Amino acid sequence: MNISKKTALVTGASRGIGRAIAERLAQDGFYVVINYAGNATHAQAAIDHIIEQGGQASAIQADVANEHDVSRLFQEAKAINGQLDVVVHSAGIMPMAKITPEALPDFDKVIHTNLRGTFLILAHAAETVPDGGRIITLSTSVIAKSFPAYGPYIASKAGVEGLVHVLANELRGRNITVNAVAPGPTGTDLFYNGKTDEQVSAIAKLAPLERIGTPEEIANVVAMLAGPDGAWVNSQVIRVNGGFA
């Protein structure tokens, strides 16, 4: 795929893994549309960095779980260059909640954002991305661990992985790949928040490589799927985790 003058939409791209993905795709020559939920300052900082590095980017605010916002997001993103070639869905939340009656509001919140949001993004991507395009979403490697208090998050991401396989089949004949990337523990503010040095060290040792991954390492795999080297990878969940799971 010749990526010159091609446009990529990255949701949740103002911080963390999403921002690293946006920056990497910009380096690869994509015009990047940065979606953010509410922090315009962080989104602008990401744009400024991309432009400083010689790339092109702009931002569009939208709640990925709101059908009206998502419809507007895709219309505005496509209008920038007349075509939307790659969609990367990175937006999501990860509150900790055990499986108890009292945690139902947390469960509903995670499912609303992570699973409903993914359904909406994938649905609009399927209608918008042209033949030969790429659709990539983020899952998680913690699915394999079943840690306490991860129930709602794991349930939402298991649903995401199911949607990826189904959509790949629904797009048969259009030469559009649909894949998921499932990071392991990755060094973002979301990961470090609330953890002691001892906890971070213990988590790092769970993988045979005995370290925390970087957002850039996740972005590298997404970039592969978005570019010409990913043309024969379809309906897959790629676990990028150093052997964590």
Please work out how many helical segments DSSP would assign. Answer: 8
Alpha-carbon distance between the two ends: 32 Å
Poorly predicted runs are none
Annotated CATH topology: Rossmann fold
Report the order of strands and helices.
Answer: EHEHEHEHEHEHHHE
**Number of self-contained structural domains:** 1
Q: Roughly how much helix do the residues carry, as a percent range?
A: 40-55%
Described by strand count, sense and barrel closure, the largest sheet is:
7 strands, parallel
* pLDDT averaged residue by residue: 95
CATH architecture: 3-Layer(aba) Sandwich
CATH class: Alpha Beta
Shape: globular
* Main sheet strand line-up: 3-2-1-4-5-6-7
Beta-strand percentage?
15-25%
Please describe the structure with a list of short key phrases separated by commas or semicolons.
about 240 residues, 8 helices, seven-stranded parallel β-sheet, single chain, about 45% helix, 7 strands, Rossmann fold, globular, alpha/beta
